[in-house]
Amino acid sequence: SRKYSPFAPISLPDRQWPSRTITVPPRWLSTDLRDGNQAIVDPMDALKKRRFFDLLVDIGVKEIEVGFPSAGATEFDFIRGLVDSGSIPADVMVQVLTQSRQDLIRTSFDSIEGVHAAVVHMYNAVSPAWRDIVFRMSKDEVRQIAVDGAKIMRDEAAARPGTEWHFQYSPETFSTAELDFSIEVCEAVMDVLQPTRERPIILNLPATVEAATPNIYADQIEYFCRNLPNRDAAVISLHTHNDRGTGVAAAELGLMAGADRVEGCLFGNGERTGNCCLVTVALNMYTQGIDPGLDFSDIDRVIETVEYCNELPVHQRHPYGGELVFTAFSGSHQDAIKKGFSARETQNDEAWRVPYLPIDPADLGRSYEAVIRVNSQSGKGGFAWVLEQDQGLKLPKKMQADFAPNVQRMADELGRELNAADIWQAFRAAYHVQT
Ligand code: KIV
Ligand code: ZN
């Protein structure tokens, strides 16, 4: 059963609130094996990539960017091996990234030819800084790069009928480019590839470097969606980075602005400050009552694999996944949480209403036991809860107050958090316990 925290709608004098919410889950694309992988000190070897791929399939990701095959033999061989293993599920579509150059596009097709369905993802940067400084090219020249690449993609696909080919185009640096120019380039690419409503092109609009508040990105997405001719023949995809710490917010607002798909990485790995964290976006939806279609019911297993493959820790306070996110150190929080859990036992609440916990930890495979921690700053509620869970002892209020200094003293002396055994030891030292 779905448990979620309802927000309290308010009505403003002049309008409905909230003005917009996310009501349907987007299509998800994981770029862990590409954008994520290119940003780690030791890129994943084939075994790690395979393990990551299997994890993504297990949690329900249906579109997976598996690499940048023209970047080198390791990438190419992994992708070719994955395809040749015949183990890509029929409902999963793999995607490969390429620059707009004939040899690179051909190599990309070579790497995945024969798979049941695949996306070839071509990109070139369109914004003024890249045009002027990096490439020293005019707008026309930049548009032509995209058009030439699209023609090669079209011809390569036609020559290789064994695979259902899909195309993705990214005007890289979209969020810092002139909107009308991005639309113009995408339109030119569409003219070549002739997408239809039934077989749309994916237009991926990156905040390659996050440069403004997330509402600005959303406005750009809305403008793009409204002004792109033949919008029905395009899937609008979001690809946010996290340079200002708002990659998730930008993706969420981008969805409300009309996009269909979100690209990102688990726990936000990726270039510099990372890509949009897919776990956070998905579970934010879940807590609003929208089934994201991704399964994080055993989040510890997900973290274990991600940490192993990326060789990067998931931060202890990372939303939903971090080791500390279901803990409460302050006494008043502990007391409120305890009351929340007790109320659930008696009230059979459909909605999730335990104070200070945005989601039921059990929905992510975490247990209630880990929720309350006891240290020198905790109040009475914490140790009382632990004693009740661990020993079945319900301490009367007066006794809690009497025992509290002992708990604090022990935590101070040991200089660490207390576990159930410590608390029980302190209790036995303070009182005569009959067994
Ligand atoms: O951030 C970016 O712009 C990219 C593109 C290649 C899509 O990763
Ligand atoms: Zn990126």
TrEMBL record:
Keywords: Acyltransferase, Amino-acid biosynthesis, Branched-chain amino acid biosynthesis, Cytoplasm, Leucine biosynthesis, Magnesium, Metal-binding, Transferase
EC assignment: 2.3.3.13
Function: Catalyzes the condensation of the acetyl group of acetyl-CoA with 3-methyl-2-oxobutanoate (2-ketoisovalerate) to form 3-carboxy-3-hydroxy-4-methylpentanoate (2-isopropylmalate).
Ranges where the Pyruvate carboxyltransferase domain occurs: 26-300
Superkingdom of origin: Bacteria
Gene of this entry: leuA
Taxon lineage: Bacteria, Pseudomonadati, Pseudomonadota, Alphaproteobacteria, Sphingomonadales
Catalytic activity, as annotated: 3-methyl-2-oxobutanoate + acetyl-CoA + H2O = (2S)-2-isopropylmalate + CoA + H(+)
Name used for this protein in its record: 2-isopropylmalate synthase
Family according to the record: Belongs to the alpha-IPM synthase/homocitrate synthase family. LeuA type 2 subfamily.
Location(s), subcellular: Cytoplasm
The keyword Lyase is assigned to this record: no
Assembly behavior: Homodimer.
